[in-house]
Queue: 4 jobs
Job 1
Amino acid sequence: MDTNEILVLTVGAILVNNVVLSRILGICPFLGVSKRIETALGMSGAVIFVMTLASFVTALFNRFLVTQTFTINGTEVDLSFTRILLFIVVIAALVQIVEILLKKFSPSLYVSLGIYLPLITTNCAVLGAAELNADASRGLISSTVFGFSTGVGFGLALLLFASIRERLAIARIPKAMEGTAIALVTAGILAMAFMGFSGLVK
Amino acid sequence: MNSPIRTWRFHGGVHPADGKALSNSVPAQRAPLLERYTVAIQQNIGAPPKPVVQKGDTVKKGQLIAEPGGFVSAPVHAPTSGTVGDIVEVPGANGGAIPAIEIISDGKDEWGSGLDPIPNWKNTDREILKKRIADAGIVGMGGAAFPTHVKLSPPPEKVIDTLILNGAECEPYLTADHRLMLERTEAVLEGAAIAAKILRVDRVFLGIEENKPDAIAALNEKAGQYGVTVVPLHVRYPQGGEKQLIYALTGRSVATGGLPMDVGCVVQNVGSCAAIRDAVVEGHPLIERYTTVTGTPVANPGTWILRFGTTVEQALTFAGGVKARAAKVIMGGPMMGFAQTSLGVTVTKNSSGILLLQWKETAEYTSNPCIRCGRCVRACPMKLLPGPVSVMVESENYDEAEKNYVMDCMECGVCTFVCPAKRPLVQHFRRAKAEINAKRRAAKAKQA
Amino acid sequence: MLITILVSAGVVAAVGLILGALIGFTAKKFEVQTDPKIEAVQELLPGANCGGCGYAGCADFASAIVTKGADPSGCSACSDAMLAKIAEVTGKAAGKKEKMTAVVFCSGSFSRSARAADYNGILDCRSASIVAGGGGKACRFGCLGYGSCARACPFGAIEIRDGLAVVHPELCRACGKCVNVCPRKLIRLVPASAPIHVYCNSLEKPAKRRKFCKNPCLACKKCIRTDENHMQMQAGLVRVNYSNPPEASFVEQVKCPTGALQVEEIHRKIAALKPVEPAPKAAPAPKKEESK
């Protein structure tokens, strides 16, 4: 795997196929934890960490369990249909462990992430990264790089959105558009802006 | 006009209609002696002075009636001879009521300050001169009323190489400093020389806006003898802002939260310089000042030498009364002055002017939404972002306003002047500064 | 086929088991002690995050109740039934709580007070109070009438009528936000059972008070002479003795010469305040506070 390939993978995951703004995955934390830049940064950090780890571990499972064909008693057993099942279990367990560690070592971050940390468990963005890796039959290293870049892409989108929402908080918004309404409009415009990156990487 | 030194152009600024023609050609007149003065006890920034006279005491003109309440404080002296009356409450120029000592004149107006003249100041110890300035109650007469002796005592680690005399008088309508420089030219220059001796500097600049050619000519004639360089500056408000003036004359910028002495400068108002000279050479404490009484509704606009404790009402009577209906009475100039709600406000050490405005000359409060035109950003001499910061203050987000340097705002009023949406920006910033200061005090009290 | 099912089920089960064991191990190793009571108490608190208890919000107060033994009755927005339930959770007897209410000690509406100037600026008490003359009313001690307190109230209990802030006692939950926000320090929390108050806060010279306002307290002390136990001087102001408040009929007995001593209901009537029905819930439509 050369640097060129890594660059293409990274730029593709961060900008062109941004996990939030063009794949529309992980919308829940995107809307929920974007009120302040500090919590957005914390959430981005957690997602990058979990995604990288999850991509690596699921790639391991994919390589050595899911894509393997076992022959038991002369019958060929193909486990590929258990892929989603296994990935979910692995990701859920990972998040649980991260949560326990966070609660121990950074209670303030734990409190500010609140409900959204357990939500990473069922976050489609994390599972999505793992699934995309498996679909593209990526190796261990490129899977991990892809997981990391997807996390960074998520962080970028979250940070941009949080910055805009901090400005929105002090702006005079028509009563009917306050809160989630204006946030969703903003997210839509942001997604359109990211369409400008299409074609950057083939 | 040719400048003797290189000058710099500060960022932003505006050119408001100056209205100085109303009063700048009228020689200053000494106000007649009043029967009663109410002298505000606190006329300085810093610790309030403590009264040292009792009701019924006889005082001489210039006698100490309130002693300083700390180092950053200035004493107050009797404006004339007579007897001490009650301690009364008078409306303060910043709102609220402030205590004042009543002096009933005996009509004799006899001096008795207890301060000996020091005509030979050139051979006098610096500390004695400094003490004299403190004893005479001299404060910054440009507006802030910061005790002058504190300014002249920079901590030893600060190297001061430039003394700047502020004769810019950029505030529209005001001509008090203009008349002072024209009529008491040598007093201003001699006071500057005394201040320069105390600070041990030999670089003394007098910054003056070009719209006072007669004063510049008068100053240039004598300036050489006193080692002062008169520097004509472009007419642009706020040229006389302390930090703007330092930048214009030296090219040095004072960092956020910093003081002029951080860049080796001390700035003195020309009125304070004349007061320094009177205190040292004549032994007269500060009991009166040049004050412009002006505005279109005033019958005879002009500059008056008013003793502290004169009320606005009396000052207006000296100026021939009011010939048209006034909508606003302002202590100070139209840009930075305070609108008053009572004519009982008294003249204090920093009252540079009393300005009356008619309805058509004032602006109605409207406060439309910010249209993000950026005029305030271009005009702000402190390079702040008045528009966005005002929006933060409106939503009571003071932390964000503090991050955007609202504390650097000097309330010059330029942003409000240029704002096409007529937003009351300065009032927002005053509010933010008050709230942030209250928060800081609370945090400090918590620590202690 | 069966083998495929069995093997895959076995594999998934094994993976689950291993990971489960791993989680169990970490959970044990890095355990953080938390009290389930805190969450239970927090559920019972109103969730308005008004800060009236002196803590950063309901969650903070809940943990203080459980861990530091703070008194739940410090929450003024809690009903008695809720307090009893909280006491059940913590196992401590609930402190006796006297219902308090905020009172704006001023009766100088625009039509009943003199004006010294036209105020031409930001319509907010705190902004008005920092400019000279602060707000235009001649009285330096009275209500400014620009509604900083009404905007600060999380329960909508303060209404501005004709330039005077008046409290709806049936909505007030005595959180004390208005007390802190008022630049004139006019608002105090007093027992809700007290039916009459002295609606004046002026420390001006008595002669001037009459010029500035129709109903000033002139500090003539007629009411104090009538009954010393019920009325008292507090820092230069005549006030009801709130530890022993008089009956409403006391007003007729005293015949206050200016009407500054007034029954709360009549004060509201003069201010033309319509009574409101308090919402049945513990915290009616609290403004959502973002925990910043």
Job 2
Amino acid sequence: MLAQQLINGLTVGGVYALIALGYTMVYGILELINFAHGEIYMLGAYLGIIFLAFFTAIGLTSYSLPLALILTFIFSVFFCSSYGLTIEKLAYKPLRKAPRLSPLISAIGVSIFLQNYVMLTQGATDKVFPHLFESAGIEIKGAIITYMQFFIIAVSAVLMLLLQLFITRTRMGKAMRAVAQDRVMASLVGINVDTVISVTFIIGSGLAAVAGLMVAMYYGLVNYSIGYIAGIKAFTAAVLGGIGSIPGAMFGGIFLGLFESLSSGYISSEYKDAYAFVILIIILLIKPAGLFGKANEEKV
Amino acid sequence: MYLLEIRDITKRFGGIRAVEEVRFRVKDGSITSIIGPNGAGKTTIFNCLTGITRPTKGAIGFLDAEITRLKPDKIVKLGISRTFQNIRLFKEMSAIENVMVSQHCRTHSGFLGAITRSRFFKNEEKSIREKALEYLELIGLESSGDMLAGNLPYGSQKRLEIARAIATEPRLILLDEPTAGMNPQETSEMMELIKKLKELGRTVILIEHDMKVVMGISENIIVLDHGVKIAEGNPEEIRKNSLVIEAYLGKEH
């Protein structure tokens, strides 16, 4: 039972972590909570269904399922990144110098718009994601890890590792850290801040797209409102780890997934969605800056 | 030959005139000091020069370009960089990373190069690191390259800011109170460093309160008071100027 709950928790946690990274990266750079981020995740799931249907129609899925899947991922990521970039340019960039509340309200507006846009174009009922993997799996000490779960855990882990390498090793990663620490100073060493912001939205949205697509494959059902609760939970995970901190978001997501899974297993699954917020309140009372966050003084 | 030409710049913040019709020119390869009491508008001029704020009126010419309305990162690429009075290092990054991030505006491998780790990218990355070490050596910090910038002692942080500024390979470097808060020993080291910058062919403008430093190294001194330029000249001329004495010590009655 324990092992099974840990596996379930890791699966959900990996997904939370991928979404939480988008929140935390955007916050780190713009000090903006991008409430439209959950919707990008939802779009990733829908685009996955659409592209997979397309590849099935042209016969690619029956020719080679792995190839069709890889292409589905690539296309969803590409489109979600474009959505993320467009949202940044249209809804946030014009408000760069406005009071901090304005882009926040703009973000909520984008979120409502995207939900309704998907509801109107795709319908209000659940969409089914085709069943691709067998439900079977590998048995480890009485617990079963399905192939799908293994896939989700592995993909999340690899993406997080790649992101970590990107941030620490590459020049764009260094530029991103510089912008997060001091935007004006970053421009004074020749960093094009607008480019860095664009890249941040592209990466964050791409990760959310992968998360959305994997969840759609895992649960098999997609609905225009799934971005809302997933977004709020991932945001909780980001705050838990310390918003603005990348390792914090990874840890926060996995921790939240495990906590949720264990408490629904051992206490009651009826309150599944409430556990996340209970833990958020506890963390905020004990360590308001989050587990990995630093209590930062107000910038003067 | 003049490297920089400031033509009658004025900067108003609401009703306050921070800088009023200031004009001066800076010779290539020289050391210029801007002095004046607090609130004289010295840092505002630096902010205008680096694109952080735009002058309300007037124009700034650098080399053959007009830079008055350019964004900071474009101005850096043209060849002006600066330090701050209150240190603004990337504290969460190591000393060497602070310098490396500055060099990137002069290098070429983009996103694709980093992902594919092409040979060109690897070679360039290696030469950036080597060059960064040279900059650290120049300021005497080569052994602390991997320390977080925020954990370095105060004097080292001040020098690291200069290394980071030089790493953008500027023609003109603006130093905002480089010796503020330093002891006499550190101050004279800083003076040596500034002279070395000149020897390396950089043009330097500094804002400075320590008269020993100002008189010791500047070829040209510009005196501001309440946003207005009240005097300009070499150290000898400034020392004797009655307007300057008045601005610093008050009027004799």
Job 3
Amino acid sequence: MNLTTDEQQHAPATSADPWHALRVHTPARIALGRSGASLPTRELLAFGIAHAQARDAVHASLDIAALRADLATFGLPIVEVRSAAANRAAYLARPDWGRRLDAASAAALKPMTPPPDLLLVIADGLSATAAQRHALPLLRETLPRLQGLQIGPLVIATQARVALADAVAIALGARLVVSLIGERPGLSAPDSLGAYITWAPQPGTTDAQRNCLSNIRPEGLGYDTAATQLAALIRASLTAGISGVALGFGEATPPQLPIS
Amino acid sequence: MYRARIGIHSHVFASLGELLAKASPFRSGDALAGVAAVSAEERMAARLALADLPLRAFLDHALIAYEHDEVTRLIVDTHDAAAFAPIASLTVGGFRDWLLSPQATTAVLAALAPGVTPEMAAAVSKLMRNQDLILAARKIRVVTAFRSTIGLPGRLAIRLQPNHPSDDPRGILASTLDGLLYGAGDACIGINPASDDPARLRALWNMLDHLIDRHGIPTQSCVLAHVTRQIEAIEAGAPVDLVFQSVGGSEALNRSFGVSLALLREAHEAGLSLKRGSAGSNVMYFETGQGAALSANAHHGLDQQTCETRAYAVCRAFAPLLVNSVVGFIGPEYLYDGKQIIRAGLEDHFCGKLIGLPMGVDVCYTNHAEADQDDMDTLLTLLGAAGVNFVMGVPGADDVMLGYQSTSFHDGLALRESLNLRHAPEFEDWLLHHQLIDAHGRLRDSTQLASLPFAKLIADLRR
């Protein structure tokens, strides 16, 4: 159902808010109207739908066979790893387990010679939906921009936190690792993909030592722009031998108020 | 060494910190830290041992060493022995009985607060059911003021939280007007900025100052940047009402936030120097939350609820207007589900009030927690019954900047209606003057834009 404000038919029992034109200025849920003290039914349901989609995304499993078939088009070897979190409940309660490889995955990974410049890890994170939808189109835009670099196998990681990619990179001996991982679903976006770039990961590498692109999806940071920024970050990080705050990224100027 | 016997089993607890941790109701963060009781019986054994422990034990044994932690030094050095006297002979179990008895009146509890250490509050809360936490807390009144007076009996205030993903001042203003027209904003109008850039922050302070001043709104603004940015802004002449900072219960956690007691003292003095309050001079706004200490590896082997109450000692030192436990924000690895979030919210509210803080709670959750709006309705209503000073007001409960769900302007209206709670008095007068509420405090229907107090502003903003 379509829930845009203009199309709402308010029943007599609900009161509309005459300032709903202000909604153009913010994605926030303003001017929702009221039924007594409470939300009108249509807004109650709109919120419920957004939450349901976010919940489904959190609990979705990565369809590994489909993702493998997608990624095969790139002609790179594909490796699967799992974290030490055995299931979704364990994953949500124990982020420390989600950052460690399970025993079988750890045993299967051997140092590569020569060590690759770069490893790309596709991880379910908190939204397998995001990884399933956006990893392929993002890589399709990104890989051509990484020509000349030695890229290791594409790694599919499940029940994975960002730092699981560190463990994979350490095991394979990669200089730099990129984790393409499903972000925590918000009400406005159940399928945001994040890209975390980490130079020379070590056990205990913190988020301050990573660069991050967030909200990668067609309605957010589009594939083309994300790929350009990602490739630039990768090359800058490889050249500088550093990642994180020190590498930096510019900021846009905010719009000004039309009133004094 | 602390012991308790249940049937044929003898349970031993090596330290006071272990005893408190194992007495704590189960939550995921304590399991993550490896400090939770290993069985339900061990948890009850810890409670048995804790119940028999004299309150004085917490004055004799520091949970984090005095020499190594300035929060411990603050707690020990500012303990008021005279205020403690009425409960000095009690055990933790006896303290619970006393708190629930008619002897513990509002006046007695107000006088007691400086004599209660955070650890005593944490300890007794671990023996209390949710019902106890509500009944004891509702007897405690902590009243503070800046332009509005917050915490009076039968009143509830709302922090209006008009965040925007890119700090667009028009978007923030749109959400602010929405909230004010819904009768929210008497606790403060507090923006979490996405950017830390001084010029962008200054634009937000100026905008709120202009709005509050021009429309005579009896509330206070706050831009929740790092406290260093706020001190710099005050020095640069920005119109800062409240000074905000997140704080924690150990020196190491505060260091991870980039603050110390000395820096907070500097911030407090800077805020006071502007003398912008009309009804009072409580200028500080603090936020806390269970789990923060562990997430910064600054918990010293303590359970997360005990760490949380120690943060309240930091707050207490600066006479804050508002203290807010952001209870469900941190995620399921610390509070897994609605049951754990509800329990933690009631604990934080009670413990903060007991040691004398103007407690509010951000009743909230993230999408990866096993919780939903029904759980938040439950916690909000329980906190209303417990006499919470303030809660959040976020448009449609959906914070589009921080990406979590809090309580909405509608939730504030619903709580007022179900428990007959009025606005802060100065704000109530303003709402009445502008005919936004009726004589019963109920929001009026506003069908005509022209009749609203911000009609011109809204018209300008629409262009």
Job 4
Amino acid sequence: MAQLNDDTLTRAGLEASVETGRVLLIACGALAREIIDLKESNGWDHMAITCLPAILHNSPQDIPAAVRHAVEKHRADFDQIFVVYADCGTGGQLQRVCDELGVKMVPGPHCYSFFEGNDRFAAKSDTEFTAFYLTDFLVRQFEAFVIKPLGLDRYPELRDTYFGHYEKLVYQAQTIDTALEEKARACAAQLGLAYEYRFTGYGDLETTLTGVARS
Amino acid sequence: MSDEEDLILSELNDEELVEQMYDDLYDGLKDELEEGVQILLDRGWAPYKVLTEALVGGMTIVGNDFRDGILFVPEVLMAAGAMKGGMAILKPLLVETGAPRAGRMVIGTVKGDIHDIGQNLVTMMMEGAGFEVKNIGINNPVESYLDAAKEFEADIIGMSALLTTTMPYMKIVIDTMKEQGLRDDYIVLVGGAPLNEEFGKAIGADAYCRDAAVAVETAKSLMARKHNQLTA
């Protein structure tokens, strides 16, 4: 897999791997490793990828405009653009922008859902709304996405204000990595939550991108 | 906004003390703020005056700086925690002294959603603005809203959601109100990160409120309009 830096994916994203081509995937930086792994293992050489800063996850209201900018920047250079975001807390605004621009995006509410499989995730919604989810990327970048933005490094007393109603942390693992699992367990302890490990693999991300690759 | 040197709050005159309380609120210093509240009360300030001039005045600065991107959520929560401490002293006194009441509100997070930070801030700011608020917490089905609103004799129902997947439940609550002929009995305000004004209109709410300060201003404005309609 290409050399990727998580801090760079969080703050700056990833430039397009080629300047022109048939298909461009405009993705969240938090999905870069997974998409590149799928691309390399499936030989999807006709697909290029560019990523927006993953930290947009923490300000979803900014995602639609960022995606619009990226689509407009690249659309003349590619035959097809696919947006590798789900709704991601935009309240339908990202779908609206994609419809307007004539590009498709990943179905589902967020990456936690499509990694698990949207149908399976939806089936659990009545019983699992007190779960806090982390993916591989978010475990690696826990400090950047959770601890620092929520001020828990400066005000640890706020922990229960944020997490008091949560019951468990579910680590949705995309890969088998014992070091990440240990870190996820520590994250749960830090937030005062029970811990659950759940291997998801790439879930609907893989099936969705397979569809894009074949289209 | 904090000073390095130790200040003796009781040695400050009223104006200096209120200014210092603004700073203490901004810095989330609960103990200092509570001390300031007590000093002003001991000096004969009416509880309502302490609330509006010292606490709400300070929280307005916090709200404005949050809106303008100068302060962030953790700092706002620390400030809110300090204000809550001051409010806890004032609340029973406000009841005793018959402070003006602006209206009654029931507020809660919708079914399937456990995020209550926003609604707790709204509760505090509404109380600061003279509203009586019954906060019914998280994960509320439609019956909880309607039962609480009836029992509390509410003027306003406030609904909050943080998730794209839970915000459609607000429409279920409003549609149920319509079915039961209750819709016109209440002002319905909605808020939460993934919502917007268009969504508020689409589901039939009276208003979408971007933040706690907007919720207060919107509630005051709609209450005045309701009052005018009733007296016309």
